[in-house]
Every structure is written in C-alpha cells, then in structure tokens.
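pasting for ref
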Amino acid sequence: MSTPIQPALDGSIPAPKTTAARRRAEDYEAWLAEVWPVFLEVAATGRTFTCYEVAHSRDLADPPDPAHHWGRLMTLLKDEGYVRTAGWACSDRPTAHHSGVRTWRGTAAARAGRAAA
C-alpha cells in the first residue's frame, strides 16, 4: 500500500524528502577500495580535514562498522605515510554534538605523490 501524498495549497506536488540515512557498504574491502583514493586525493592537497568532512562532502558510504572502520582507515593512511595528525576540532557530524575529533593533514610525501609504505 502506498503512502498518500498531500499536495501543496497551490496544487503542486512537493518533492520527496530525502532521509538523513547514509549508504552503508556491506563489505569492508569494497568500502576501502571506494574511499581510499578519495582520501589520497584530499591528503595530496595538504589542507587540514576531518573524516566526516571528507565523507560528507564526497558522499562516501559508511563502512560496515562505522564506529571502528573510520578510525582504522585513518590509521592505515597514517601508517602508509599519507597523513599525519594535525590537532583537534569540533565535529560537524550532526550526531556528535560538536564533540572533539582528530584533524588530519596530508604529508609532504602525499603532496609529492611519493608516500612510502
């Protein structure tokens, strides 16, 4: 059974509302293959960023376990020499209530495209 749509007073049909739910990847390796190149591109800019800022602006899928996999991604990028910690900021994530989050910046090696494993 479909949900009835209430027309506006002028008779037009309103656009469907988009939900706040984000896509969620079902497989960690597939998710990593999707987000890795995006974070490498951001690291190459040398600007300071948060995980959520990049994920939100690029409409990236959440990993299968968001509570742990985002941090694991940043640890892998740091271990590979692409990013370094830059400090702390208040989170823009709506559910985080402006709590403190780590900020990251691409390394000189990432900007030069030669980060080492």
